[in-house]
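Course exercise 7: structure representation. Students receive a sequence record and must write out the corresponding structure in token form. The form below is the worked example handed out in class, using Peptidase, M23/M37 family protein (287 residues). Read each field label carefully; the graders check that inputs and outputs are placed in the correct fields and that the protein name is recorded exactly as given.

STUDENT ID: A-19
EXERCISE PROTEIN: Peptidase, M23/M37 family protein
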Amino acid sequence: MVLKSENIISLLNNIENVYKIISLDKSLMEAAKILQKQLEEEKNEISKNLEKIELSKEEIVAKQDELKEAQKEFLVKQEFHQSKMNELYGLESQKSNLISSLTDKQEELEDKIGDLVSYNKQLQQELDSIFDEINNGNNGGGNNSGGENSGGNGIPGDPSSETFLRPGYGVVTDEYGPRTNPVTGEAGFHTGVDLGDPSGAPVAASKSGVVAYSGWISGYGETVIIDHGNGVQTLYGHNSQRLVSVGQTVARGETIAYVGSTGMSTGPHIHWEIRINGQHTNPMQYV
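STUDENT ANSWER:
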């Protein structure tokens, strides 16, 4: 078969096109392989990143759990501290109330002490009045009858040879002179001595005389006053019971009362005074 020239040219063109297609296919295949390799690498990279993300996610979850636990612990501690703060506020409130109460009680106590101080002044005035009446002869005369002389110091101007006897055997628990009042806590002056005899013990007349007073004297309680004449009297306070009456003559050493703790007293004892012309003096210098 004889080919025409046009056909030969067309054939050659077709062959050339085929070669071009084949070459293009090879290029595409190479490009596809390269692309596939890149895709594989990217896939691996993505897988690694996903693994990292998973690990990070687990770490985040773990951190979240830790944060939740820390938050719970914080809330528990916060509640505890709040509870302690409430306790402190409560204690502070109690403290304020206690201070206020103590202040009120202190003011009340100061008022009572003031009343007692005023009362004590009234008591001394009452005593002075009683001794004035005795020395002015309103409650009977004195008795200068003699008695045994057992030593001791006499009172100047007293014609009696009879000395004074301690009204009890107890030790002196409170001396004559300046002191802090055991009841009021105020500074004052103790006008006699206190003898620490037990409750119910006998109280003896220090010297012969006439009972000038037997009764209750405010702070002194059950009290006996004996007039010994010449402006001299003895007083016996805080007795539980009086055994003599006004106008009765008593002998030195005779039981005139029993020890007690009546009136303003902190315990059983004999409060003993010697008065000369109404003025108190230290009785221990005459025994």
